[in-house]
Design brief:
single chain; 284 residues; Rossmann fold; Helicase, Ruva Protein, domain 3; 2 domains; three-stranded parallel beta sheet
């Protein structure tokens, strides 16, 4: 059972982890079982645990140490036997030194540490990851991009991936959405990857999207010069609308699920739906 601690506010995350009782807060119309309770005798994965507040860190420490907690708004103590796996995109020792992460919680979590090297240090994994993401996003977007141009794969392997696997994942998804045929080609990749540089090293606004604009012109899908701001805005809007539409379809119209997978909150998604004239679908 996975919980992304960085995707929810403190109050929502507390309810997600520990559950709540009816009337605990506005909108709590029924009792809810938290993830820890649901994971009893199983495993819970806390992603981006460095994003948790001190208040929640205290409650997490108690669960780890005493194996007990109370639902939000309740006084009944619930005991659980749950294996906890936690991940952080920052060095937790650095966070402890900055006093943004509790030292006692760090040492309670640090039983079997696993350091995952950055993607640039394990380039042999890149072809396998690209193949995996192609299969996944082809299915999610109902596409058939099954071939990878050798030059494109070479560029992906050379690039040093400052955003690690998530950056690679996003690049592959973008290529699938924009590919006119069944092949992931070099021309579909951002300029920063073709040249082996990080996006931050590309001067000017939106290096990746400027590259996409050039690609659209080359493919005859846009007619204005790539440097034109109007074209830039159209490209941004087009890609954004397509991604939102595809994600909503993949999630069966459930906004909450689509927003989570897009990495935005539901209110932001609703605004985007109105901006792009998309149907709102399920509001649950």
């Amino acid at each position: 059972m996975r919980v992304n601690c960085g995707a929810l506010s403190e109050s929502l995350l507390e309810s997600e982890l520990f559950g709540h009782v009816r009337g605990a807060f506005t909108g709590a119309v029924a009792n809810r079982t938290g993830r820890f309770e649901a994971a009893h005798t199983g495993t819970i994965f806390l992603d981006e645990i460095n994003s948790t507040t001190h208040h929640l860190q205290v409650k997490l420490l108690r669960v780890l140490q005493e194996r007990e907690f109370e639902r939000v708004g309740d006084t009944e103590t619930i005991r659980v036997d749950t294996r906890v796996i936690a991940a952080s995109n920052r060095d937790l020792l650095d966070e402890v030194a900055k006093e943004s992460f509790r030292e006692d919680l760090y040492y309670r979590l640090n039983v079997i540490p696993i350091l995952l090297p950055p993607l640039r240090s394990r380039r042999d994994d890149i072809p396998l990851l690209v193949t995996h993401f192609l299969e996944f996003y082809n299915e999610q977007n109902d596409r058939y991009v099954v071939h990878i141009q050798k030059e494109a794969l070479d560029a992906l392997v050379r690039y040093h991936w400052p955003g690690n696997v998530r950056e690679l994942q996003n690049v592959v998804e973008r290529c699938i959405v924009m590919a006119p045929g069944d092949e992931l080609t070099l021309g579909l990749l951002p300029t920063s990857i073709r040249g082996g540089r990080s996006a931050a090293s590309v001067p000017g606004r939106g290096g990746d999207l400027d590259s996409l604009a050039r690609d659209l012109v080359e493919q005859g899908l846009a007619t204005a010069p790539p440097g034109d701001d109007t074209l830039f805005d159209r490209v941004v809007s087009r890609v954004e609308r397509e991604l939102i539409a595809q994600m909503l379809a993949a999630c069966g119209g459930v906004q909450l699920k689509a927003a989570a997978r897009l990495g935005i909150n539901r209110n932001t998604l609703r605004k985007k739906l109105l901006e792009h004239g998309l149907e709102e679908g399920d509001t649950s």
